[in-house]
Amino acid sequence: METEQQRKERERQEDLQRLRGLRPIDDDFMRCLFRENIPLTQHVLRIITGKSDLIIENVETQADMKRLVGARSICLDAYGTDDAGKKYDMEVQRSDKGAGVHRARYHSSAMDIDNLDAGQEFDELPETYTIFITENDIYGKELPFYPIERINMATGEPFGDGEHILYVNGAYRGDDEIGNLMHDFSCSDPNDMINKDLADRSRYFKETEEGVSEVCKVMEDMRNEASVRTYIEACLDFGIKDKEEIIAKLLEKFKFLTREQANKYFA
Question: Are 28 and 214 in contact (CB under 8 A)?
Fold first, then answer.
């Protein structure tokens, strides 16, 4: 029978093995690369948006967008704000299904909800960019970008509501900045990367003791979160609907969980 200490050591060794193969397009590794890293976020967004003078003022990874009680919560991979107040949600998706049109719509609407408080006018909504970097060319046209914009069907003019959705083709390998960036997003070895900023950041997390520890902690947190969410879904499937009853069961089963953390799953 495996002890708790043995289990943790086994999981750590598995994480170290997995770390060697992680790429920027893997969401757990991306979470590390862009966390509290404004320069890298700004550099990547400048390439993707074509805005060479874009200034990013803050970035948050795994930003929780749930503000409506009972609504499905989502966590944005990298959520940035520029100096004009525009919002950027940058997501990496290895699965074509994970970048579906309805998901893009939901992400965009979640940013709207998060950025308009009671008493504000609707025209105070900031301009938003929902960006999906997909591993495959989901539209099959071999283009680097697929921008999605609303238009007035009667006039053919832009609707101009400030909502932008952009699919970035992660399979694109053109001889340009975006082609080089997408090449690097698929590299597990920093030495194979073209972009120095991304290579240096990847090298830190793969080759330094501090960086490796950070990535392993993220992997552990993601495992724990997945276990908690699965347990909550099991409680609901068994007809347990009372929030306090479920939280009590969570605290009993998962010793790493605090009441405050458990409450966030029901925010």
Answer: no
Tens digit of each residue's pLDDT (9 = 90 or more) over 5-41: 777 767 767 777 788 899 999 988 998 899 889 999 9
Residues 93 and 188 in one domain: yes
Which strands, in side-by-side order, build the sheet including 163-169? 56-64, 75-82, 87-93, 128-134, 163-169, 145-148
Residue type, 98: G
Reported pTM: 0.80
Say if residue 195 is in the same domain as residue 239. no
**Structural domain includes residue 13:** no
Residue 195 is assigned to a structural domain of this protein: yes
- Expressed as residue numbers, the domain containing 167 is 21-207
Best CA proximity match to 99, nearest among 47, 143, 138, 54: 138
In a domain, 95, yes or no: yes
CA distances (Å), origin 266, targets 11, 66, 115, 230, 244: 28, 10, 21, 14, 10
Q: Decide: 159 and 150 in contact? Cβ < 8 Å.
A: yes
What mean pLDDT value characterizes the chain? Answer: 89
CA torsion angle 141 145 150 152 (round to 10): -60
Asked if residue 167 and residue 44 are part of one domain, the reply reads yes
Whether 248 is in a domain gets the answer yes
| Residues 153 and 225 reside in one and the same domain | no
Compute the half-sphere exposure of residue 200: CA atoms within 13 Å on the CB side of its CA: 6
- CA separation for the pair 44, 199 (Å, rounded): 13
Q: Which two tokens stand for residue 70?
A: 């009972």
The residue behind tokens 């975006």 is 178
